[in-house]
Amino acid sequence: MTTVASPPLVGPVRLALRQGGLELRQFLRSRESVVFTMGFPVIMILIFAAIFNDEIAPAVSYTQYFITGMIATGLMTVSFQNLGIWIPIERDRGVLKRLRGTPMPKWVYFAGKVIMVVVIGIAETALLLAVSVALFDLRLPGTLGKWLTFGWVSVLGIAACTLCGIAFSSLARTARSGSAVVTPVALVLQFISGVFFVFTSLPGWMQQVAAIFPLKWMCQGLRSVFLPESFGAQEPGGSFELGRVALVLAAWCVIGLVLCLTTFRWTTKRDG
């Protein structure tokens, strides 16, 4: 009597990579998402650089300042905004409900989202840096310390925005309302966080509101990487305050995780 060998178990790493590959393929098949996520920051840099070319501080042009903000915005777009829009679509279509009914562990779904966000975030950042260096003479970090700062600010920032995007996705009641709920929030954060305007030129109350959220601190941390040390004196605290940047972004990672665990929904209200 012959026995049929059971198929080998798939390890957690392979499960996560498979789901990540699936998420990437789905993202790349959506031309609108690819164009908006990858192209929007580049287009904005080209437009603003053509309009504003004056200096905002000694040896610091507006373009240099704006590029750092757009790198942070790109990371927020691919994580917070992208997840906040697409998860409600998948929930409304019943994709999440079907996934919950399969033997696949729930964490694999989120691991796939994280892998997709990281891969697209790296590609988008590389594209922005390449365009900025080629066309606008952006100087890349010249020391290992600045590259390390670039790394941990990006990792903490994208982690916080990813968790907040997953949690925020529960606010959208339908697939159509996802974009209407998330996009205005993302745009407001960009305007008040020092992306389009020099942060210290904004009204005081606006600076205080922006300081609550991650994007302001992502921008500030990235300015410490790409702008001269002397520009730190132009920041509200008189320096780049990297310790506070790390503290706020880490706090938002914790807040985002708690919100995900307490608010995430696999089904719509009509499904129960």
Automatic annotation (TrEMBL):
PROSITE patterns: ABC_TM2. Pfam families: ABC2_membrane. GO terms for cellular component: ATP-binding cassette (ABC) transporter complex. GO terms for molecular function: ABC-type transporter activity. It is found in: Cell membrane; Membrane. GO terms for biological process: response to antibiotic. It comes from the Bacteria. The chain crosses the membrane at residues 34-53, 65-87, 107-135, 147-168, 180-199, 245-264. Residues 32-267 form the ABC transmembrane type-2 domain. Keywords: Antibiotic resistance, Cell membrane, Membrane, Transmembrane, Transmembrane helix, Transport. It is a multi-pass membrane protein. Belongs to the ABC-2 integral membrane protein family. PANTHER family: ABC-TYPE MULTIDRUG TRANSPORT SYSTEM, PERMEASE COMPONENT, NODULATION PROTEIN J. This is Transport permease protein. The lineage of its organism: Bacteria, Bacillati, Actinomycetota, Actinomycetes, Micromonosporales.
